[in-house]
Specification:
mainly beta; 4-stranded antiparallel sheet; 35% strand
Length: 129
């Protein structure tokens, strides 16, 4: 299955009544499966607008490699994930910029789980290692 098109520039709805710094935006999508439009369920693309550079390189355990031509460093895998002590309280959903991890407020994670969403697994930080 793949997403064929994203419909419309406006977000469809928000998951939380609590304030966001920048609320995630949801766009309806058309899914094409085996050449046919899949109509049994509705699907949405979630666009996360908030990205924080808060990965703690010193206290995390990870493997990385460096591209010789550019000097850029890329993280290959993470064994222990730590964030810098930054105030994330106003963010209900954000991306950890350096590694692309998605951090979601428990309230929103619970709502997604209650809605019966598939293809996603939420891990409590205390159970991650």
């Amino acid at each position: 299955a793949f997403i064929n098109k994203v419909c419309g520039p406006q977000p469809l709805y928000s998951l939380s009544r609590r304030p966001f710094c920048h609320p995630p935006r949801f766009f309806p999508v058309t899914v094409i499966y085996e050449g046919e439009e899949y109509l049994e369920k509705s699907y949405f693309l979630m666009h996360i607008l908030d990205e924080l550079d808060c990965f703690d390189f010193e206290n995390s355990e990870y493997k990385s490699h460096q591209i010789q031509s550019s000097g850029a460093r890329y993280i290959d895998s993470i064994r222990k994930f730590s964030l810098l002590p930054v105030d994330t309280s106003k963010y209900k959903v954000f991306i950890v910029g350096e590694v692309g991890f998605l951090i979601i407020d428990r309230f929103i994670a619970d709502k997604i789980t209650e809605a019966g969403a598939t293809g996603v697994k939420f891990i409590d930080p205390s159970e991650a290692y």
